[in-house]
Specification:
The chain is an alpha/beta fold. It has three domains: 172 residues, ATPase, nucleotide binding domain (Nucleotidyltransferase, domain 5); 147 residues, ATPase, nucleotide binding domain (Nucleotidyltransferase, domain 5); 224 residues, DHBP synthase. It is 35% helix and 18% strand. The protein contains 20 helices and 21 strands. The longest helix has 29 residues. The radius of gyration is 24 Å and the shape is globular.
Length: 611
Amino acid sequence: MRVLGLSAYYHDSAAALVVDGEIVAAAQEERFSRKKHDARFPRQAVRYCLEAGGIRLTDIDQVVFYDKPFLKFERLLETYLAFAPRGFRSFRVAMPLWLREKLFQKSLLAKELKSLDDGFDPEGRLNFTEHHVSHAASAFYPSPFEEAVVLTMDGVGEWATTSVGVGRGTELTIEREIHFPHSLGLLYSAFTYYAGFKVNSGEYKVMGLAPYGEPRFTQAILDHLIDVKPDGSYRMNLDYFDYCTGLRMTNAKFDALFGGPPRKPEQRLTQREMDLAASVQAALEEIVLRMTRALHADYGIDNLCLAGGVALNCVANGKILRDGAFKNIWIQPAAGDAGGALGAALSGAYGIGGATRRVTPGRDAMKGAYLGPEFTQADIEARLKAEKAAFERLAPDAVIAETAKALAEGKAVGWFDGRMEFGPRALGARSILGDPRSPQMQSVLNLKVKYRESFRPFAPSVLREDVAEWFELDCDSPYMLLVADVAAGHRKAMTEAEMKLFGIDKLNVPRSDVPAITHVDYSARIQTVSADVNPRYHALISAFKDLTGCPMLVNTSFNVRGEPLVCTPEDAFRCFMGTEIELLVVGDAVLRKERQDPALKRNYETAFELD
């Protein structure tokens, strides 16, 4: 049975194809449209998925959309009625769009699908699943577990904001829910907004900023903003928030509690924002740990699956793992709304199609999240020639050797290989790489390559067989969704003067033998690389280890701030020519910056809207 899953019309629209329970392809629309968090119907992503599966839309048995619009509309109306007459301005803005488009989403989707293939008949083939069911399905069905508790946390779906399910074999049932307006995702997003970052985009910046601050507001959050029970269930105090009916997340009472108005976007960061980030991160961790401990006690199942936007908080995930209530955890790499498309397809495959689920212990079904487009070497070369790029084609072994040598020399390398990643993380297919031993590499990549805020940390891609020697972690972390500390033997002790530094002043103090990936609290967001999942990337890191003794590389996404991850060889070349990346590797084609025509240089620093 062939099932196409779709997410769209909110943010991060995507498409996914599942055939007889196997995940064949998945991609976000933003990668093709080059518009960050593109929410439009995923026309190009659908075309790609069909092409990857070698089928037409008329061959699809079911199309499943990732949420239920009528339930969302019900929540919208009930919320406005509950708070009336407050929020009339927001109601007036939202209602015309709902009445024009969103309320008639089934006919809109049918029209979009027929525009892709006029032979497609949506009658009986277009279905909808609830938002949190989509998230839960995306987490459980690809997991390496026959049985698991499934915890989904995000801003809001239709009504649910936190849900608990249990998966056994092909059965997945949702057993508990917390409903809007009570939401951990919206609590975190409120602080994202208040700190001057974009909601649904900048939450990971709050997580990255947290170690620079002190959690001096955590108790105020727990005392005033959210009432948390011992089992992690919670209720928000809506006196401090404006997201139910307003056009902003927080209100004057929130401002008064935390000492002033929200920071304006791009305004200089102060210690207050760092302390607020540390405080909401600590509060989130406390709530989630209460929840996971109680869930294990209630269900007695040792496996936990996570999805929803909150599951992208890799610091909290690391705390759950170390807490040990659950022996094993697995997190959907596309945990946000894009992953809802995959969950919708899987829900259709197992719920409607009766697919047989095959579980391999220790091995998930995500194929490393390498589910996007790939390009043959001949196609790569034709595309680069059309861009007037100067390149040389090397034998595969020579590509690895040349790249490892450039990295050991401290060069920033663009690495484009195989199928593009699905989800927000670059995992060695569309990555910018660097030497983690370099004290300057973090600032160079942030300021001269990524054109982004200096405080933002970078992740290591480390050989799976070496991870326990370098980090306080000894399990798979293939999707960069777990944070652990650098092992004590590789840390550098701080001087008394360095320990007294505050905020961003901490940034330039080397804390380990690999300072470019060591955050100010000695932590790192780890991607383990296995030879059987990505053999070429594993070979590159191994070659770098042979040259330097260091079994890891700095790995950040191949894009600049505000740009989606590169998808095509042309995208990679343009980003290469718009930044200070010194070497670009696309398949077996090697491009050196000094050999390119200077007339092809681009200004990427201001090319994209800031995220």
